[in-house]
Design brief:
Elements: E1 2-4, E2 13-17, E3 22-26, E4 40-44, E5 51-55, E6 73-75, E7 82-83, E8 85-88, E9 93-97, E10 103-107, H1 114-124, E11 130-137, E12 143-149, E13 157-163, H2 171-183, H3 189-197, E14 198-203, H4 208-213, H5 238-250, E15 254-261, E16 268-270, H6 280-296, H7 319-327, E17 330-337, H8 353-370
Parallel strand pairs: 3-5, 13-14, 13-15, 15-17
Antiparallel strand pairs: 1-4, 2-3, 4-10, 5-9, 6-7, 6-10, 8-9, 11-12, 12-14, 16-17
Length: 374
């Protein structure tokens, strides 16, 4: 039996492999950071063996509240991912599985590879609706990709969609892929209407370096990009610097920043209620969009989420808060679970890439309903 992780987004250290199927593992920390929680590795040579893969440093991870009731995902073909028995005892996380094939992959959530990202960009640019824009380069020399969909026009809104500031939150890019596919579908009536009323700027992956390196939360320099929006720099957070620079050129009426939450087993939205300029009109916009998304998807709800901040108490380094204040726009963070949804569970796949994709499409439906409000 062998454990390997030397591939795109791989992250694990193999400490020992016993003949009895007990395998001791440890998650590697993010680049230049103490954050850790994302894992992605391959097990070979264990067909038919009852394996107990023990992540020994689970209690040192960034979000230990994410482990209770969590189930890891596995795949034989790297296309179909399913949940496997997982148990947290307060110190160690044990993934128990008997592989049916001699090669099987395990991950914290369904991975979204940089190769798939490149395919997404390459395929999207074939649409006559799309203009590809190269924003610049990351610290590892990867491209920062931006897709402009549609054209500016008098009275048209400017909408931004960004995902994966935190690279381990791969559900975010699956969600954005759903949005992108809908926007480029000429048979989709909602998308046609949206493009009549707005131009879209889409950043499918805000953190290519962290994605490829197998980080949970940071870029190559160890920067948590969602704490860099007030004072980004090309030396420490070029990803935010380049995207913010373009936002300042285009302006903004709407922005959805897509994330994942380790602990909460719900899909929910976090607004920017804590900024100084928050008022009743902005609250009404936020409430309307959330209710529209409830109507569009049974997987979304509004009862469980983050505590609202008091006006003037918002952390302004956070993207949602900074952008809502700077542009006076409707800016929200969409959070999805690593666990299954509490209200709409799926025993086999849990919250999954396809379900994230579908929620992305529902987000456009909600935006269509909200367009006259922004």
């Amino acid at each position: 039996m062998k454990i390997s992780q030397n591939f795109d987004s791989g992250n694990i250290e193999c400490l020992s492999i016993g003949k009895d199927g007990n395998i001791e593992l440890a998650i590697r920390r993010d680049s230049n950071s103490d954050f850790m929680q994302w894992f992605h590795y391959r097990l070979t040579g264990a067909k038919g063996v009852e394996c107990n893969m023990i992540i020994t440093n689970a209690n040192d991870c960034a979000y230990v509240e994410g482990w209770p009731d969590y189930q890891a995902v596995a795949s034989y073909d790297r296309q179909t991912w399913f949940r496997v028995d997982t148990h947290y005892d307060g110190e160690k996380l044990t993934i128990a599985h008997t592989p049916e094939c001699d090669s099987v992959y395990y991950a914290y959530f369904t991975p979204y590879s940089m190769e798939r990202h490149h395919d997404l960009i390459a395929n999207a640019q074939l649409s006559e609706l799309v203009e590809y824009i190269h924003l610049g380069s990351t610290l590892d020399g990867q491209d920062m990709d931006l897709l402009k969909i549609g054209e500016e026009g008098e009275g048209k809104k400017v909408c931004w969609l960004i995902a994966r500031q935190h690279p381990g939150e791969t559900m975010a890019q699956w969600c954005l892929e759903g949005m992108l596919d809908s926007l480029l579908d000429p048979e989709d009536p909602i998308s046609r209407e949206l493009l009549n009323k707005a131009v879209f700027y889409v950043v499918p992956n805000m953190n290519p370096d962290g994605s490829r390196r197998g980080n949970l939360r940071t870029n190559a320099a160890g920067a948590n990009l969602n704490r860099e929006w007030q004072t980004p720099s090309m030396e420490h957070s070029p990803e935010v610097y380049l995207v913010r620079q373009k936002m300042e050129q285009t302006g903004m009426d709407f922005c959805l920043d897509v994330h994942g939450d380790e602990a909460l087993a719900y899909n929910f939205i976090a607004g920017s209620e804590g900024i100084e300029s928050w008022n009743d009109a902005r609250q009404a916009q936020l409430d309307f969009y959330q209710q529209a998304l409830v109507n569009a998807s049974p997987d979304f709800q509004t009862k469980i989420g983050y505590d609202q901040e008091e006006p003037g108490k918002a952390l302004m380094t956070v993207g949602t808060n900074y952008l809502a204040h700077a542009f006076g726009a409707l800016v929200m963070t969409l959070e999805m679970p690593f666990k299954d949804t509490e209200q709409t569970p799926d025993e086999y796949v849990g919250w999954s890439a396809p379900r994230s994709y579908k929620l992305g499409q529902a987000c456009l439906n909600a935006l269509h309903q909200t367009m006259l409000k922004i």
